[in-house]
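Reopening this ticket.

The earlier resolution said the output was attached, but the attachment link was broken on my side. Pasting everything inline this time so it's all in one place.
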Amino acid sequence: MSDGLNGLGESGPDTAVQLLTPTGERVEHPDYAFAGDDAMVRRFYADMVRVRRVDAEAIALQRQGELGLWPSLLGQEGAQIGAVHAMRDQDYAFPTYREHGITIGRGVDPLRLLAMFRGTDPGTWDIEALGVHLYSIIIGTQGLQATGYGMGLERDGLVGSGDPERDAAVMCFFGDGATSQGDINEGLVFASSFNAPVVFFCQNNQWAISEPIERQSRAPLYRRAAGFGLPGVRVDGNDALAVHAVTTAALDRARSGNGPTFIEAYTYRMGAHTTSDDPTKYRLEHELAQWRDRDPISRVRAYLESTGAADADFFAAVDAESDELAVRLRKECLALPEPSLAETFDWVYATKSPELVEQLARHEEYAASFEEAR
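Inline output:
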């Protein structure tokens, strides 16, 4: 089994793009540069800490029986926050079930995520206003959805006009396990064939539940892009600055009408696949320890501290804000009203079909019979 560091620790053709080392040192790359300033880096840090705090609170709630399940993003904050900040308001994201950094970064109240995994609703944020779709729970389905949406943008004249306020692109987020699903590959075929403005963003976190990446792919995932006729790039997924630079370039390319890009964000899932998983049964502790040294939050903090771009008051304020958010989420999560079975009929279609109206009437009649029996 590999040590999980291939593509990061050594130079070579498969070395990932990196602009910030694990010790917080800025480095140059011949093809990509981070265009942001230290204010943006501070925002990256604050957002990553906030998302990690939400993640920790959600795990605690699940362990106490308040959530049915929770998929942790621990260790993948850099990939998600770096990518979401590269998006413009008019762009649209199709996430999988682990993209808490993407959804929160697009403005979704994290309470809506907790409600979904508590089972009180299927996701009730405004997908059109926020530009982020509901979670794709079935692995890989978002590949086709993202491609279709991108093709629609092109046909609506929202690509390649040269207007930065109008031209749009699509981000399709998925994990390494989803690359074995037909939907993702079919999406790549269509996106390439029709030059759709889609950025396929694969977070290679090394483990598809208990299957290591080398058991799924004999070659680095980003190399697959060439077979579909589109560019592929591997980026250090724990380097938020590099992810931002690479994603910005890919989105610019898509919006300008030059087609899709495949990004492999090489990262690591430091937690369990979900709260029903026990990763100690299939991976070694020393591998996890190696990736803790590459923690995306620690490296940004090291940079901010070493350069004087942030002081102790800043870090304390970020921690306090994150703790306040966790307290609010716990309180409001426990207060979420229990849904009635009749409400489920509201979540099928935007406008109820005649058949659905009839089924709802039959249900209400059946439910009322129990009240009459009392």
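Reporter confirms the inline version is readable. The chain has a mean pLDDT of 95. Residues 58 and 64 are 10 Å apart (CA to CA).
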